[in-house]
Amino acid sequence: MEESNCSLKSVILIIIFYLYQKYFMNKILLKKLNFLLFFLISFCFVNAQTAPFHSEIQQFEKQDSIHFPPKHAILFLGSSSFRKWKDVQNDFPGYTIINRGFGGSTIPDAIYYADEIVFPYEPKQVVIYEGDNDLASSDKITADSVLNRFKQLFNLLRSKLPNTSIAFVSIKPSPSREKLMPQMQESNSMVKRFLSHQKNAAFIDVYHAMLNKDGTPDKSLFIEDELHMNAKGYAIWKRIIQPYLLKK
Q1: Same domain, yes or no, for 117 and 27?
Q2: 17 with 66, same domain?
Q3: pLDDT tens, position by position, 37-94
Q4: d(CA 248, CA 244)
Q5: Which domain holds residue 27?
Q6: How many domains does the chain contain in total?
Q7: pTM of this structure
């Protein structure tokens, strides 16, 4: 009974506070509250505009407004290794490819922009290249971090696109990031293990095909920055990725 009285008192207090706000609050305070609300809204708007890669995402949205891509295509989602694959559609004739590689993105970036550059297309397949920049961004990012981040992305895609096939392209061994190769291999192994227990999912291993016989990265596959690939590198990706792409 005492608990009921307390609840009733709480409801009465809320009603009184609401009425006080509505009818008795002085105009000066109302102005201050309105200013605060305006400031918070402006802050959120500016913050959204200054989010990483915002301008690139805007470009995608502008392209979509002019010519929206066909639905149920194959979506390439990832970082600059996809962004720089300019002739990806020509490399996969017979497939409809939407390339949404952007910046030097990480897995959290892909999650952040999924509403803009994934879900509107309703893709039949999402091919992901991420994790490379995650490891390079901080010494605190481990293989466990990459796996946990990827699980978040995977679960997000599964929740909104339950019938969509999901493929993860392994982190590549770039000469400029040779010191990160142990973490890359561990990340690749962990993601591969995770995907092996998932339905309608695949792990695409490009890592080992990009190594010399001594296990070092093959520099002949990269441009001068030793991070991004040349045509020879993309030819390897094309050969390895194509068998995993959905025809129908």
Answers
A1: no
A2: no
A3: 555 555 444 444 567 899 999 999 999 999 999 999 999 999 999 999 999 999 999 9
A4: 12
A5: 2-49
A6: 2
A7: 0.80
